Task: structure prediction
Amino acid sequence: MVSNEENLKKSGIILPEISSPAGLYQPGIRIGDLIYTSGQLPLVGGKLLEPGGKGRVTEAREREAAMAARAAALNAIAVLRSVVGNLDAIAGVVKLTVYVSSAEGFTSQHKVANGASELVGEIFGESGRHVRSAVGVASLPLDASVEIEMIAYSPLSEK
Result:
C-alpha cells in the first residue's frame, strides 16, 4: 500500500508554507481523533490565485475557480500536516466544505469543488473519499473565488 507521503512525492506536489492567520484563530486544530482546518484561500506564494478583481465565479470562469479550489485544498492539506507532523498519520479525509463566490445564477459550485476533491483523492487515495458541501456565497475574504475547510481523521496513538 502506498503511503500518503509517497503519493504526494510521486505526484510532484510540494506542500506550501502555512499562511499566517489574518485574525485571532488557529490554521488547524486537533480535537480527539479529528483535525479541523480553518478556511483556506487559494494563496500561492503568499498571493491570491485568481485575484478577486475578476469578480465572482461564472460559468466562463468555472475552470479557473476549480484550479483555485485545488490550490486552497493544497493549503488545507499543508495545515493537516502541520498539526499531525506527517500525512501518513491521516487515516481519512472526512469532509470538505467549499465556499464559492458565485455570480447571480451560477449553480455549478459542485464542479468548482471537484478541483479540491480530485486533489484529495490524488494524495489520500481511497482514504480521501469524503463527504462534501459546495456552497455559493456573495463574497469571501480578500475577494477570493473560493475558500475551503477540511476535516480529517487521525487516530491518536494508544499508550
User: Anything to note?
Assistant: The mean pLDDT is 93. The longest strand covers residues 92-101.
